[in-house]
Specification:
homodimer, 200 residues, alpha+beta, 4-stranded mixed sheet, 56% helix, globular
Chain lengths: 200, 200
Amino acid sequence: MPAPIDFYFDFSSPYGFLASQKIEALAAAHRREVNWRPMLLGVAFKATGMAPLPHVPLKGTYSMRDFLRSARFHGIAYRQPATFPISTVSAARAYYWLQGRDPKKAVALAKALYNAYFAEGLDISKPENVAQVARRLGVSAEELAAALNDPAVKEKTKNEVDTAVAKGVFGSPFIVVDGEPFWGVDRFDQIERWLAQGPF
Amino acid sequence: MPAPIDFYFDFSSPYGFLASQKIEALAAAHRREVNWRPMLLGVAFKATGMAPLPHVPLKGTYSMRDFLRSARFHGIAYRQPATFPISTVSAARAYYWLQGRDPKKAVALAKALYNAYFAEGLDISKPENVAQVARRLGVSAEELAAALNDPAVKEKTKNEVDTAVAKGVFGSPFIVVDGEPFWGVDRFDQIERWLAQGPF
C-alpha cells in the first residue's frame, strides 16, 4: 500500500467541501488512503497576508458565483451558508479529539460537519452545533463539550494547524501526494495523473 | 455565429500564457471566435488589494512550482522567465495600437509576445524588445516605437484595462462567455461544458 494522501481543508471552505466529496473515490481508485487534516484558513492568512474571499473586492463577487457553479459542475448538492465564512476552530478541535479515540469516526464527523454547514445550513462555528452533529454519530455531546475546552485538545489542534502552515499549506483544499503539493479542487485532474503515472 | 469569447490576460501571467495556447482550439470547436483583450494585473491589484504571486508568502513558492507542473500537464513548452513578473504596459499598448490597424496581426503579435516571454525568455517589459518581436511579423519598429508614446494609444489602452476591471476582471486569464465569467486556465473544463451545453 503506498503512502496515504494528506487532505488539508478548512471546514468553512466551499472548495474544500467539494474536494471532500471527491477525495475518497479518487484515492481509492489508486489504492490510497486519505489522511483528513482540518486546518484553519485564518492562521494561514496571517502567514500569507491573504484574506477571506468575500472580503476581496471583485474576486469575492466572482467567487460566490463560482462556488455555486463549481458545485453544479461537479454534481454536488451545495447551499451557500447564510453566515460565511465562519470560525471553524471548534469543528477542527472536535475532529482532532475524536481522531485520538476513533480515527474512522473522526472522518465520519468531518464529512457530517461539512454536510451540516454546506447542505443543511447549520452554523458549525457554534460548539453546540458541532456537538449536535457529533451526537448523530453516537458521540457523547457532554464528552465533546468537555473536549472542546480541554487544553490538550486545543494544543493538539494548534500544533496540527501550525505544522501544516509551516509545511506551506496556505489554502483549502490542499492535497499532498508523496510530498507533491496541490492546491484547489481544480487540481484534481493533475492529482489523478500523478496518482496514475507518478511524477510528471 | 454566436458571440465571440472575451479572453482577458496579462502578458506576464503564466496561467494566461497557458490559456493562450488553448483558447483558440476550444473556441473553434464550438464555432466561436476569440476576442483577445490584454489587461494589466497591476491595475486590477489596486482594485482588489491582491499582490503578484511571487510576493505572497507560501502561495508564491507553491505557484512557482505549479506554473511549471501545469505547463507540463498541458503539454506546453514553458520556461520560467528570469525577470518575473514584469510590467506589460508596452506589450498591451502595442497590441491595442495594432488592433486598430490589423486585428488579425494584433492577435499574432499577442501570441508572439507571450512566446517571446515564456519560451524565449525575452524581457517584453522593454519597448525595444516589444518592437523586436513585432518586427518579425512585418510591423515597422519605428511606427511601433512612435505608437507606444502616442497619447491616443495610451488612452485607448487605459480605457480597455479600466473597463475590464470595472466589469469585474480581476485576474488572468479571465474568460467571459455570453456574460458568464470564468477565472483561470483551470476553468477550461467548465468553459467547455458551458460552450457545449449552455448555462449549467
